[in-house]
Design goal:
The chain has helices at 2-14, 16-36, 51-62, 88-103, 113-116, 141-156, 177-193, 196-220, 230-258, 263-290, 298-319, 321-329, 341-348, 355-365, 367-382, 403-414, 435-447, 480-500, 509-543, 547-572, 591-620, 625-652, 660-692, 701-706, 715-733; strands at 41-42, 72-78, 107-111, 125-132, 160-164, 226-227, 390-391, 423-428, 452-455, 459-460, 466-473, 503-507, 588-589. By secondary structure, it is of the alpha+beta class. α2 runs parallel beside α8, α10 packs antiparallel against α21 (591-620) and α19 (509-543) runs parallel beside α21. Belongs to the resistance-nodulation-cell division (RND) (TC 2.A.6) family. MmpL subfamily.
């Protein structure tokens, strides 16, 4: 590996114009392709294998007029104080507005509140259920404008009109978060290198890679239905890792130059050492992200594969385009007019010790105390995770005073919380001898359940063998009582099937969200086993040690638990919510924990690889275990610190997003990197390595013989280069032949 990357680095440096032109051609190809296609994204969920998805598919087949998979909106009317919607001019106005809704673009059906029973007992609140012919992703701006026009007309007539449902949701605009992250990253890079040129190369390659990745995703979305969050999360992760990978290689390149190597050779050596770490770190992240596809949830598959592609592109650019740009930069990359006096003293005159070395010596002198404090702190942060609640985003978690939240609260006031999430109960009586009797038994069964507020009569399909029933819970859609109710209905359906031969299924948005949460919760342990298992094999190859990979995985679990605790404290409990721009406390988005596990594991292994490979490199070259730890910090602590600050800045910038999922992922990843880089990798790791001593690098003989030597630390490369140098020196030392005579 190291030898191949050494040759690749020298080739890219030497043939820099060719490499640059090839990458420009790639960018032009995907950019033109992305600009010339009509891309489409979706925020809908499909959960194959669940009862709710099975029932939804049946409804689409047997009740096509109901547009079961279509987007929905709920238009809520509220009369002024002292007036009612059931009489006079207010009723006439509502009837007129409902008629306008039926004429709106893409609308399939509108349920009249006066004939559909959706007027409150006191007559002050009513709502019309709007069903669209198309899915949420295909609702046009014109359709949303028609909906808003009706609401505005009602407001002008003196009514309070609000709207909820997925058809009302608009795609979140890209915030300035990534620009803020880039600005902080630029400052961190300038401080690290003391040079604008050296700081600019990681930023340039990162932006180049992100443009390629996002263009490729946009092009792909023209042929494959992708989630609208795919590009955002690919941008978030790709930007962070691309800057980090380039940072490590540029730092190593400058170090090789200081040791007296020519620029081309320095580029080869930088790729042969730091480049090897980049390959394995990137591979670990890609495995963790691509592994999300095994869950079976389309949204996770989309964002996982999209982000994995962005990371893979970042690795390729770091290994090819970056050394080419180093060739263009030439020796100017070593000039740093922005270095502090202390940086010059350490780097140029060898005076004093970097802060990272002083910290490493402190930890290695007090390993037990430091380890105890760090572990205790992480466990303390993890305590809120014990009260973790999961739910999918809904109108109840919308920002206060938004039309979705006003609609939700108005319905709750007029009817009860359950009316915000009615259950769609499907009776499949195609194998029953008495379809109508089975449907009536289902209506009776639902009516006897204590947490059901109301049950509608059964509506049959044209063949009369599939019935549709609407049941309204007494509790809110995201409450545990509603979860228990859905489970109880399904349990009672088993008895109905035994008695009548008909199958009873529960679907609808509320049931779908419940099934999503259950599926994600059940998939967490298998996902951990697959991803962590594959990554441990990679780390075993990298470090040729059993204890180091196990220690890395244990540290990752600690940082994930602590991160979940912080996320719960902020988004669920409301701690520091205002300061972080969180408008509304709510259960944690169901997708977050499993996505966080995948991404954080990959990023955690990044710092493990970058920091500990340098320790192993020093140990392999003869340093004592404790001195190898200190030496690893001497060469890597400053760069790892800068890399962590950059990642934290990029992720924290996404707190400015108006999407709950993106906002919570941004905070979660920022906190995870903070804890993993500074508490786990730079505190717990050196403490444990000191306590383990030589045992940290031990490997059973039989395993040593079985495992291939991938030479991440570049030991074989060093021997090869040293041998080549000795051979060249011997030739130079041979005496020239003398002429005879």
């Amino acid at each position: 590996m190291a030898t191949f990357l050494h040759r690749l680095g020298r080739f890219a440096f030497r043939r820099r114009r060719l490499v640059l032109m090839l990458w420009i051609a790639v960018l032009a190809a995907v950019g033109i392709g992305a600009a010339s296609v009509s891309a489409g994204t979706s925020d809908s969920f499909t959960i194959p294998g669940t009862q709710s998805q099975k029932a939804l598919d049946l409804l689409g087949k047997e009740f096509p007029q109901a547009s079961a998979a279509g987007a929905t909106a709920r238009v809520v009317f509220e009369a002024p104080d002292g007036r009612k919607l059931t009489s006079g001019g207010d009723k006439a106005e509502v009837v007129s507005l409902v008629a306008d809704l039926r004429k709106a673009s893409q609308v399939a059906d509108v349920a009249d509140p006066f004939t559909g029973g959706t007027v409150s007992k006191d007559g002050s609140v009513a709502y019309a259920q709007v069903t669209y012919k198309v899915a949420q992703a295909d609702v046009t701006d014109r359709a949303r404008a028609d909906l808003k026009s009706v609401a505005d007309r009602g407001d002008r007539a003196g009514l309070t009109v609000s709207m909820g449902g997925n058809a009302v949701q608009v795609k979140s605009e890209q915030s300035a978060g990534e620009l803020i992250g880039l600005a902080v990253a630029a400052v961190a890079l300038v401080i690290t290198f003391g040079s604008l040129l050296a700081a600019g190369l990681p930023l340039l390659t990162a932006v180049f890679g992100i443009v390629v990745a996002v263009s490729a995703i946009t092009l792909t979305s023209a042929f494959v239905d992708l989630s609208s969050s795919t590009s955002t999360l690919a941008l978030m992760l790709g930007l962070a890792v691309a800057i980090d990978y380039a940072l490590f290689i540029v730092s190593r390149y400058r170090g090789e130059i200081r040791e007296g190597h020519e620029p081309e050779e320095a580029a080869g050596r930088a790729l042969g050492t730091a480049g090897s770490a980049v390959v394995f770190a990137g591979l670990t992240v890609v495995i963790a992200l691509a592994g999300l596809s095994i869950i079976g949830v389309g949204l996770l598959t989309d964002i996982g594969l999209g982000a994995a592609g962005a990371v893979a592109i970042a690795v390729l650019i770091a290994l090819t385009l970056l050394p080419a740009l180093l060739g263009f930069a030439g020796p100017r990359i070593m000039k740093g007019r922005l270095k502090t006096r202390r940086m010059r003293a350490i780097e140029e005159r060898g005076e004093g010790e970097p802060a990272g070395v002083r910290w490493a010596r402190f930890v290695t002198r007090n390993p037990v105390k430091v380890l105890a404090v760090a572990v205790a702190a992480l466990f303390a942060l993890a305590i809120p995770a014990l009260s973790l609640q999961l739910a999918m985003p809904s109108d109840s978690s919308a920002a206060p005073h938004s039309t979705q939240r006003v609609a939700y609260d108005t319905i709750t006031k007029g009817f009860g919380p359950g009316y915000n999430g009615p259950l769609t109960v499907v009776v499949d009586a195609r194998t029953s001898d008495d379809a109508k009797g089975a449907a009536q038994d289902a209506v009776t069964l639902l009516g006897t359940m204590p947490d059901v507020a109301s049950v509608s009569p059964a509506t049959f399909n044209q063949a009369g063998d599939v019935a549709l029933i609407r049941a309204v819970p007494k509790s809110s859609p995201s409450s545990q009582d509603t979860v228990d109710l859905v489970s109880a209905i399904r349990d009672r359906g088993t008895a109905l099937h035994a008695d009548t031969g008909a199958e009873l299924m529960v679907t609808g948005t509320t049931a779908l969200n419940i099934d999503i949460s259950a599926k994600l919760g059940g998939a967490l342990v298998p996902y951990l086993a697959v991803v962590v298992g594959l990554a441990l094999v990679l780390l075993l190859l990298v470090f040729r040690s059993v204890l180091v990979p196990l220690k890395a995985a244990a540290g990752f679990l600690l940082s994930v638990l602590a991160t979940l605790g912080v996320v719960v404290a902020v988004f669920q409990w409301g701690w520091f919510a205002g300061a972080l721009g969180v408008d509304q406390t709510a259960p944690i988005v169901s997708l977050l924990p499993i996505f966080l596990v995948g991404v954080v594991f990959g990023l955690a292994m990044d710092y493990q690889v970058f920091l500990v490979t340098r320790m192993r490199e020093e140990y392999v070259h003869g340093a004592e275990p404790t001195e190898a730890v200190v030496a690893g910090f001497r060469h890597g602590a400053r760069v790892v610190t800068a890399a962590a600050i950059i990642m934290i800045s990029v992720f924290a910038g996404f707190l400015l997003s108006d999407t709950a999922l993106i906002k919570s992922i941004g905070l979660g990843l920022a906190v995870a990197v903070l804890l993993d880089a500074f508490v786990v990798r730079m505190t717990i790791v050196p403490a444990v390595m000191t306590l383990l001593g030589r045992r940290a690098w031990s490997l059973p003989g039989w395993l040593d013989r079985v495992l291939p030597n991938v030479d991440v630390e570049g030991e074989k490369l060093r021997h090869l280069l040293a041998k080549a140098q000795d051979t060249e020196g011997t030739r130079d030392a041979e005496p020239l032949p003398t002429a005879r005579g």
